[in-house]
Amino acid sequence: MILMITGGAGFIGSNLILYWLKKYPEDHIINFDSLTYAGNLSNLSSVEKHPHYHFVNGNLCVPEEISSAFEEHRVEAVIHLAAESHVDRSIAGPGQFIQTNVVGTFNLLEAAKEHWRENLAKHRFHHVSTDEVYGSLGETGFFSETTPYSPNSPYSASKASSDHLVRAYRHTFGLNVTTTNCSNNYGPFQFPEKLLPLLIKNCLEQKPIPVYGDGSNIRDWLYVTDHCSAIDTVFHHGKEGETYNIGGLNEWSNIDIIHFVCRLLDEALGRSGKDSCENLISFVKDRPGHDRRYAIDASKIQKELNWRPSFTFEQGIRETISWYLDHQDWVRLVSSGEYQKYYKQQYGSK
Ligand SMILES: NC(=O)c1ccc[n+]([C@@H]2O[C@H](COP(=O)([O-])OP(=O)(O)OC[C@H]3O[C@@H](n4cnc5c(N)ncnc54)[C@H](O)[C@@H]3O)[C@@H](O)[C@H]2O)c1
Question: CATH number, domain at 175?
Answer without folding.
Answer: 3.40.50.720
